[in-house]
């Protein structure tokens, strides 16, 4: 028998009813959407752009392949993938405010052709089984209530031979770096959020959500449980983030 589903889950360091988390996360991203790209640069000192380029290179979607980018936010991964040769890209996000920003950016950059925008819950994707060759999710899995369901959905929509790619904050593996990272996350980020986005609480949640996310080995185990095979991960920046991959065979 499957273990019972708990009634509560984490929202940063808070314990909240499971049914409430998606609403709370949606409020966070509705609040930060207008300044999200600026804040990403400030939060990571611009390094997130390097991480995303490495990630898209690892995805390596060809003109013959369809890529589903789950929790695609304001479109960074989708746009890079199109620029680097991906055929069809489906940019999916549960938050209409984030998708609106992504659509505006796509039009400004002349990248709207070849990208489909889909407002959808990553735990219940309105896509057929075995319909895409690649699935990606960047900095979005930790915000999902049922991460196991997201991983199962990713496998379901992959064609046999397709590959899942996840870029996410992970467990820092260098002690000196971990101490500096904690100081930055909990001392600086909320202040930046207050000053630039007038929203310290949302950025405090984002820092807390990183610490609550499964580490490299735990996430690899979850991916295997979801039916993905040949699971592997690659640390970037000492484990601040990691790229996880798995195949549907």
Characterise this structure.
This protein is of the alpha/beta class and 249 residues long. The protein has one domain: Vaccinia Virus protein VP39 (Rossmann fold, 3-Layer(aba) Sandwich). Helix content is 46%, strand content 23%. It has helices spanning 18-32, 36-44, 47-59, 76-83, 96-108, 147-157, 175-196, 200-212, 216-225; strands at residues 8-11, 14-17, 66-70, 88-93, 115-119, 132-138, 158-169, 229-236, 241-247. Helix 3 (47-59) packs across helix 4 and helix 7 packs antiparallel against helix 8. The protein is globular and about 45 Å long. The model has no long low-confidence stretch (mean pLDDT 90).
Give the structure's gist in a few sentences:
The chain is α/β, with parallel strands linked by helices and 249 residues long.
Backbone shape: globular
CATH class: Alpha Beta
Quick one: biggest sheet? 7 strands, mixed
Helix and strand run? EEHHHEHEHEEHEHHHEE
CATH topology: Rossmann fold
Distance between the termini: 26 Å
**Total number of helical segments?**
9
Beta-strand segment tally: 9
Q: How many domains?
A: 1
């Amino acid at each position: 028998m499957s273990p019972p589903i708990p009634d509560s889950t984490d929202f940063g360091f808070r314990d909240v009813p499971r049914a409430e988390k998606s609403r709370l996360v949606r409020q966070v991203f509705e609040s930060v959407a207008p300044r999200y790209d600026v804040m990403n640069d400030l939060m990571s000192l611009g390094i997130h752009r390097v991480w995303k380029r490495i990630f898209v290179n690892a995805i390596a979607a060809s003109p013959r392949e369809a890529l589903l980018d789950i929790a695609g936010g304001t479109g960074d991964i989708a746009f890079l993938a199109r620029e680097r040769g991906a055929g069809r890209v489906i940019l999916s996000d549960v938050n209409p405010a984030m998708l609106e920003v992504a659509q505006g950016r796509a039009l400004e950059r002349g990248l709207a052709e070849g990208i489909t925008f889909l407002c959808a819950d990553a735990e219940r994707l309105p896509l057929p089984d075995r319909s895409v060759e690649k699935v990606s999710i960047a900095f979005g899995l930790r915000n999902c209530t049922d991460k196991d369901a997201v991983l199962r959905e990713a496998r379901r929509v992959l064609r046999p031979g397709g590959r899942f790619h996840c870029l996410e904050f992970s467990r820092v593996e260098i002690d000196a770096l971990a101490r500096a990272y904690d100081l930055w996350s909990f001392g600086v980020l909320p202040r930046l959020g207050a000053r630039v986005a007038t929203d310290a609480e949302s950025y405090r949640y984002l820092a807390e959500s990183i610490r609550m996310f499964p580490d490299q080995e735990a996430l690899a185990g979850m991916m295997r449980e979801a039916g993905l095979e040949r699971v592997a991960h690659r640390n970037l920046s000492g484990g601040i983030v990691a790229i996880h991959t798995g195949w549907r065979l």
